[in-house]
Amino acid sequence: MKKIQTQVLTIFMLLFLVFGAFVVFFSTRLMQEYANENQKEDLIQQSNLVLSNFNRVIEEKEDFQDLKEQALKVKEYTNQRITLIDLTGTVIYDSKIEDSSRLGDHSSREEIKAILVGESQGTAIRTSDSTKKTLYYVAQPIVDQSGKLVGVLRLAKPLAEMNQLNGQIIQSIATFSLLALVLTAGITFLVAKYIAKPIEEVMNVAKKLSNKEYHARFSGNGYGEVTKLGQTINELAESLEDQMREIAQNKERINELINHLVIGVMQLDDQGEIQIVNPAMCQIFGMASNELLGKSYVEATKSYGLSHIIEKAYRKKEIQNKEIYFYFPTERIVDANVVPIAGKIKGEMNLIVLLYDITEIRRLEKVRTDFVTNASHELRTPVTALKGFSETLLDGAMEDKGILKQFLEIMLEESTRLDLLVNDILELSKLEQKQVPINYKTVSVKDATLSVFKLVKQKAEQKNITMNLIEQDNVEIEADKDRLKQILANLIDNAVTYTRSGGTVNVILKKTEEQATITISDNGMGIPEDELNRIFERFYRVDKGRSRNSGGTGLGLSIVKYLVENFNGTIAVNSKIGLGTTFTLTFPLRHF
Question: Considering the entire predicted model, what is its pTM?
Answer without folding.
Answer: 0.47
